[in-house]
Amino acid sequence: MRVAAISAHQRLDLLAEQAQQVEPRWVVATDAEAAVDRDWKDLPANCELLTGTEGLTKIVQHEQIAVVVAAIVGSAGLRSTWAALEAGKIVALANKETLVMAGPLVMELAARTGGKLLPIDSEHSAIFQAMQAGKRSEVRRVVLTASGGPFRNMTLEQLQDVTVEQALAHPTWDMGPKITVDSATMMNKALEIVEARWLFDLQPEQIEVVIHPQSTVHSFVEFVDGSVIAQMSPPDMKMPIQYALTWPDRTASVAVEMDWSTAFSLDFEPADYRRFGALQLGIDTARAGGTAGAVLNAANESAVAGFLDGQIGFADIVPACQSVVDNHPFQPQPDLETLIDLDHWAREEVFRACT
Fold this sequence. Notes:
The protein has about 350 residues and is α/β, with parallel strands linked by helices. The protein has 15 helices and eleven strands. Helix 4 (about 80-85) packs parallel to helix 5.
């Protein structure tokens, strides 16, 4: 494998540092204004700088690119993922928001162009791997595991007083602030429910969530005969990333491996849909389809930003999302531009509520 291109939005010093390490043919700075203000003399020789989202679209469709790792956080990743699938590329998908926003449209596009989506999220990678133990028609249900975040044992009353610092202290994973807050509210699992519904062509009733604090079993697939196939590995994202890049083959792993010489136990408990209302919101959104996913995703991104800025409380995030989803102008079969328009609308609705 060779890294042909890498991109970043505003962390341009890190982008240049990584370019020195992997010597790509292109780097893309999607924030064009920030790119203008930077001296790019530290780029390797023969490395071309492209700027703006149009630069990203150009690269993901380039004939020399075989696999695109789509890992831009949030709705900002939709356009470039769409462009890659439009060109028939293999997309290793870490950006769940693409399918949350536009799942039916994205899957139809991939089927039409011959593009392929391979999941990088550990839960969806686990489902993808476990499903290979049987026929697709033999799947009864899938069970997404959730760490439960830092507040899985808190009462509803205690959740009212959660601080930003507490929400960012995840017990298992080291992630960015937005995703860490999503884990604390369980909204990450709500989005994963919607993602799984479209990625694996499931009905919402076929998707369940179970709390698993160790984050070692990444998800289950239950078949019609009662057999349950689980995928296990330490909580290290290198393994699912590697599998998406090498699929359908497996190679020696660069990730941490299971240590079978040490005793350990695995715990599972039902998810509490009352304390963590995001889970039911995820099921309802997956069932509604249409514009609901795009609105939920945008409302959540805006609400989390409001929480991190101290404008709303932790316990206000999910109700704010619920209100915007319930009151948006729902359309059952939107086009891509409608989804993007509603993305902007939902953000403004939450922003007005926060100010």
